[in-house]
Amino acid sequence: MIKKITLFFFLLHNCLFASQDYELQLYETIFPAIFEKSNLKIYSDKKGVNTLRKSKIFETIKVCQDADLVVLGSLTNLENSCQQKPIFVTEFKLIDSYDNVFGAFYWRKGRPQIRFFNKALESLHLKLPQNFQKYIDR
Amino acid sequence: MNWKIATLQVIFASAMFAEHLDLDMLLNNIHKKTDLSEKTKLANGGISFVYTRDDIQRMQARFLKDILKSTYPYGYNENKFGLSDPLYMGTLHPFVSSTIRVFIDNQEITTSLYGSGIIVIGDIDIDFVDHIEVYTQNPSYEFSTEPTFVLIKLYSKSSIKDEGSRISVSKTSNSGHFENFQNAKSLEKWSYFTYLSNRNLDSDSINNFSKDKKVQHIFATATDGFNNFMLQTIRQQRDAFVNYSLNSNQVQSTLDMDFVHLGWDRKTDNFSYNITYDYMLTDSDFINTLGIANSVDSLTQSEVYTAEMKYQYNLNNNRFLTGLKYRYKKFDYKNLVINSSAIKKSGHTYQTVASGFLENQYSVKNSTILTTGLQYSNIYNDHSITKDDLLMYRLGLTHTTSHWTFKTVASQTQTSLDPYLVNSYQTSTNPYGYIVDGDKEIQNMRSLLQNIIFDNGKSQYEMIISKLNIKNYLLPNNTTPTAVLDNYDNEVNTYGVNFKYTQEYNDVDKLFVSIDYSQTHDYPNIKKLKKYNLVIRSTNSYKNIDFFNEFLYYKDNIENKNFYDYGLGAKYYMNGDLSLFVKGENIFDKAKANNYENYYGSFSTENINLSPIQKEFTIGLEYLF
């Protein structure tokens, strides 16, 4: 009983204080909803790692092959194994860089924007929740 | 029992995650709460006030004067030439506010003859600006090559947030118009931001005193993350307002100013470097039937070269910052003809300022920081006996708890003569108020203040109590427009108290109130000068419309009049890219005004009151693509 209550409060604490970083909150909302699990292994470049490693539900890894997805903030020459993974970019100019870019978060025209791309979502067999449909790039 | 607890866990966990599924809310939070001002604000830079991107947009502040007019401690004012001059004293001097300095990013905008760049950009359009920070009471020496009592930092937009293009057009009720275009892009290694604007201002003119102007402005930056390049050019063709006139019969009163700023700064590891160049060409013409002078025709060219190097070093609980700065100001009065007589040049052609500073922030405990700073400047003028050594210091203690911040700051600022005051023109009469080259004392300003802030997240209460002592104050030696600036024999003391209250009702509704009282003792011809200021500003949103209201009140015991400036505006977002805005400024035409004497006939005079903030209504469109 005590163990369960402790576990409950641990979960509650994690939920409440998962992130004070708003960008990280965004990722913790999007990725579990699309991949239908919360403990994701994420490979990222230096720019993304600084944000993602603060997460209590994601694990940042150094080897692409084991990753569930890739978060890319700067243009680097991704290995082939990384290019096969679902890719989420955080710069507008990276959207067309790889075929597997399924989503993007970036600043443009003075405001933050989110977009998802149907073609990549379909080829990766990823399903977008209903309330994310308005961000599909048409 | 086990399944009940498990169910509760799922319900609570879902409730927590459900909150996060609203992407619109998250994007809104990112927009509001990751403001770049959080990254740039000088921690322990003295008393500061920040206008965030959101503040500037909601206030529809399009020109720097829209911000300055309600900013502690000095507000905004213009002099007899229609030029920005917050410390204007009613004389014919072209500029007296050189201790109020302005930076764009890490580069100072400055002028050779007059010191501060406020004379050029005090009323410039600021649609290229992301956020603005104002520091007062002798802020950090990190950003002051020359003596600075108020530091205004404009941070330009960049491709970080503003990739893409934006165009804005507007028209005013006074037949003026304003257009601007901006574009930002990130390339492989570099990113850039460019901005162009054109403005035609038709001002109120009373009795032929006009401030009409045309301004073309170009601003551009490029950066690779380490090196930052900046270019700014401003061309102004202005009517020069009252100028040297004593009545309204000007045949001609014009002032053309061309200004260019070029700069590079770089930060690597512990070092930062800065090299800038500022150029100004002014061409003024004045012809009148009754003036201080009947005709004045002048052409001046000036340049400023600045180089700085700073080094930061952390050791145990200390954060040391030290630096060397050198500034070379060159000027040439190419032409000066007064009443058809050419005035012989004085021989004064340049001034140099060499400064060194050392600052330390010592963490006494996690919540307490002791700041000490020292700056020494050597001022040299060729062909002049004016050569000064200036010593500035500041000592500050900041203590913070979860809700409270206590700041105590003691400081000294010393100032020398700006180049245009250093020498006079060799003429048999001296009606223009310039100081004859003489041994003027260094002006010494000592300040002590206490700042207390209480912040509980949604509400912030702030109080500033201050005392400012000025020795050898450079003041007009009489009350006529032809007064000469001279060292005042008495020490002048100003005591001030300022209360600020900020309430954020939610993400979009905010109220700001500021009440300010100051009392100056032993000012010339005035036993006590008392000033009262009130600012009330609210910004709100309803569906796709942003509103703002602003009320400014001013009174002093000399004119004993109530001045109030009421402005309001609304911006309607038709979609994410297109918006329509309307704004009214000084709607009741009762804003704080300066008094000008107008002589007509042989013996008659009348007083004319004209405000630097004219009554105006604006309508415009903005489109992002």
Please bin the fraction of helical residues of chain A: 25-40%
By DSSP, the count of extended strands of chain B is 33
Average pLDDT score of chain B: 88
Say how many strands of chain A there are: 6
Q: What fraction of the residues of chain B are assigned to beta strands by DSSP? A: over 45%
Average of the residue pLDDT scores of chain A: 83
SSE series of chain A: HHEHEEHEEEH
User: Biggest sheet of chain A, in brief?
Assistant: 6 strands, mixed
Helix content of chain B: under 10%
The largest inter-chain interface, given as chain pair and residues per side, is: A-B, 35 and 34 residues
Rounded to the nearest angstrom, the distance between the terminal CA atoms of chain B is 59 Å
Description:
The complex is a heterodimer of chains A (138) and B (625). Chain A has 138 residues and is an alpha/beta fold. Helices cover 33% and strands 20% of the residues of chain A. Chain A has helices at 2-16, 22-35, 46-52, 80-83, 118-123, and strands at residues 41-44, 59-61, 69-72, 87-89, 101-108, 111-116. Chain A has a six-stranded mixed beta sheet. Chain A is globular, with a radius of gyration of 16 Å. Mean pLDDT of chain A is 83; it is low at 2-20. With 625 residues, chain B is mainly beta. Chain B has eight helices and 33 strands. The longest helix of chain B has 19 residues, at 2-20. Chain A binds chain B through residues 1, 4-5, 7-8, 11-12, 15-16, 22-23, 25-26, 28-30, 32-33, 75, 91-93, 106-114, 129, 131-132, 135, and chain B through 1-2, 5-6, 8-9, 12-13, 16-17, 20-21, 23, 26-27, 29-31, 33-34, 53, 157, 160-164, 166, 186, 188, 576-577, 624-625.
